[in-house]
Specification:
The complex is a heterodimer of chains A (about 325) and B (about 300).
Chain A: H1 3-13, H2 19-23, H3 29-35, H4 37-57, E1 60-61, E2 69-70, H5 74-81, H6 83-115, H7 121-134, H8 138-147, H9 153-160, H10 175-185, H11 188-198, H12 203-211, H13 216-244, H14 248-253, H15 267-277, H16 281-309
Antiparallel strand pairs in A: 1-2
Chain B: H1 4-7, H2 37-68, H3 89-95, H4 102-133, H5 139-149, H6 155-167, H7 175-182, H8 187-198, H9 202-210, H10 215-226, H11 228-244, H12 247-252, H13 261-272, H14 277-311
Helix pairs in contact in B: 2-14, 3-14, 4-7, 4-8, 4-11, 9-10, 11-14, 13-14
The chains are: A mainly alpha (about 325), B mainly alpha (about 300).
Organism (chain B): Arthrobacter psychrolactophilus
InterPro entries (chain B): MetI-like, MetI-like_sf
GO biological process, one term (chain B): transmembrane transport
Amino acid sequence: MSALGELSKMKRRTGAKSAAEKRDDRRDNKAAYIFLIPWLIGLLFITIGPMVASLYLSFTDYNLLQAPNWTGLDNFARMLRDTRLHNSLGVTFTYVLVGVPVQLAVALLIAMVLDKGIRGLPFYRSVFYLPSLLGGSVAIAILWKQIFGTTGLVNQLLAMIGIQGPGWISDPNTALGSIILLHVWTFGAPMIIFLAGLRQIPAMYYEAASVDGASPWQKFAKITIPLLSPIIFFNLVLQIIGSFQAFTQAFIVSGGNGGPSDSTMFFTLYLYQKGFGQFDMGYASAMAWVLLIIIGVFTAINFVVSKYWVFYDD
Amino acid sequence: MTNLQTASPETKTVAAPISPEKKPKVRESMGSLAFSRRARARAITKHIILIACGAIMIYPLLWMVVSSLRPNDLIFKDPGLWLNTLDLSNYSSGWSALTHPFGHYMLNSAIVVIGCILGNLISCSMAAYAFARLKFTASKLFFGIMLLTLMLPFHVVVVPQYVLFSQIGWVNTFWPLIVPKLLATDAFFVFLMVQFIRGIPKDLDEAARIDGAGHPRIFLRVILPLMVPALATTTIFTFIWTWNDFFSSLIYLTDPDMFTVPVALRAFVDSQAGTSWGSLFAMSIVSLLPVFLIFLFGQRFLIKGIATTGIK
């Protein structure tokens, strides 16, 4: 099962132990905790400790030089008034709510074209997968900055057919779109997961449907989507969590300032500017917790809604 | 575990002992239709669509390579892929454009990457062995916590981590980038390895136990040699993610001596202000080359890795 499957299964498993489990109940506590020493130290000092500390800092005014100064809910009140923050939330939501569905739809579409025993599958798979390995790098963000620039590749190609394109990344209306396109370009990783999932659907379902005279659309809607739904769900949850944290591309394409006119000021970029540009670390911590809560709410909604559309075979 | 190996023979070698219940592929009946004219027309249409999509996706990359090999001004004029002369001057000027030759930053990145790979291999495999094979108090609780940390945004811990590491004087050292990996904080790999170890038959452990081996010995002599494919996947993913990682380097490495490749490239962008795209492209390609090589030679592990953690 996927990580998500494991998590949702854990609830069910905590019930009564089976007889076989009871019989085999000797424990290796000492050995286990020795093997877990690095992980436990990491959990304490790199994960949980800093989480608690950042929760505390979010109620303080802290600039790294002086001791944190308790200010109560001040940071959160400031956030309610901070229009640049509201704008950055809008930018991030647009990126997630447009980028993730479009990317997954493209990934599923290409995976379905590739699935039906096509020749040259390994070649196509490599071609589509490569961008998702490179897409997170600064180098590709630099390439994007050129491609969608005023005299970039896109406008050079448009000029060949007589169209004068805008400066995509210098125009506040299209800058975010260029970055969303970069996200869509990296559809290879979810595509591989879809491909693997499609392979698990027995072909006889489709054959039986053909015998009954089902149209391709009916097969897609009644067989592919339900049987693939756990994998669509997995991709959706992970891509949403990941996309909320997108940073590098916006930073490089905008030269670190989220411009033009804050149109690519992602929430994470604003957080970086506050925390590490202005060393307003209390405020940055409060923002980080807001991000955690937003991601948590989105994930929770995903899990709740999944009951109505995700179909588990077992 | 997925059935990728039915599609490509080369993945067969990594067909790990993960899943005993592999389903045979039952799509062969498609073959009888393959010769009908309609089916052939459909296949050709599909290939045309796929080639068109692939070409659009790869074109920018190819164009970047070609552009890096021609004079600077052509980058703003020539959208084609035709190369008249081979001009390597962008590479030589880009290599020495910053305070240090670009190789210096590549070396810095290599040090961080090697540290992170070793850290992940050791710490994650140890944690995975405990989770997959050992019974201990609160094992389910800890396993659940481990899975939850998989979804934790880095930003929630980054400020206090920065405070912690700056107080022990680790800013502008590689330690803040490497030490978390030594402490198995990459839950993705712990999970990947747990899944893999679960697929190794328990009889092997039992046999070793009867021969008097303790857990360290079973781990080192039985489990580790059998989980080489999972270790390879971990190595490759750690390489690519660490090599590309920008945010941590940006925060912790402000001294040009310590720059890794991503922050060096960023400094390059800032210093050029868009004047010499040629050398910028050249160094971008140099920075992508290791990832591309890994992709060429380690593809099967990559595909196996994401498919495994995604499906089972």
